[in-house]
Amino acid sequence: MQPAAAHDIQKTNRVFEQEVAAKRNIDALDQVYTQNARILPPGAEMVSGRENIKTFWRAAIESMGVKAVKLQTVDFEPETGFEIGRATLEFAAGTQPVDVKYIVLWKREDGIWKWHVDMWSPVS
Predict the structure, then answer these.
(1) pLDDT digit string (tens) for 35-84?
(2) Contact 2, 78 (CB under 8 A)
(3) Torsion (CA) 102, 107, 108, 112 in degrees, nearest 10
(4) What does pTM read for this prediction?
(5) What SS3 class is residue 64?
(6) Residue 57 phi, psi (nearest 5)
(7) Partners of 48 in beta bridges
(8) Are the beta carbons of 71 and 11 closer than 8 angstroms?
(9) Which residues of 84-120 are buried (b: 16+ CB within 10 A; e: fewer)?
(10) What CATH class is the domain 3-122?
(11) How far is it, in rounded angstroms, from Cα 68 to Cα 71?
């Protein structure tokens, strides 16, 4: 990964971990997703547009009791803005963490790398 791209990618991923998941600051998704982003959650329909994605994450974090997310980039292709990674989701006390694999297509918006297409699924 190119050093500048690596820094930008990790910075955006930390916003999701530290602001969105840990602090439940859903408005921080403005710094994570592009305006016209799409997510493809497992077992659900595609969600399009940042405002709809905010609604999805607000409901998902609340209903699942998410308390932490840790993202780990496995590979990033700076020429195409393509990331493959793994994540661990931690929930309220008494619930086992869940490991997922993900793919993110990144896009530069207003000079910042943001998630443009986000898809994940549980690791069985």
Answers:
(1) 999 999 999 999 999 999 999 999 999 999 999 999 999 999 888 899 99
(2) yes
(3) -20
(4) 0.92
(5) helix
(6) -65, -35
(7) 38
(8) no
(9) ebebebbeeeeeeeeebebebbbbeeeeebbbbbbeb
(10) alpha beta
(11) 10
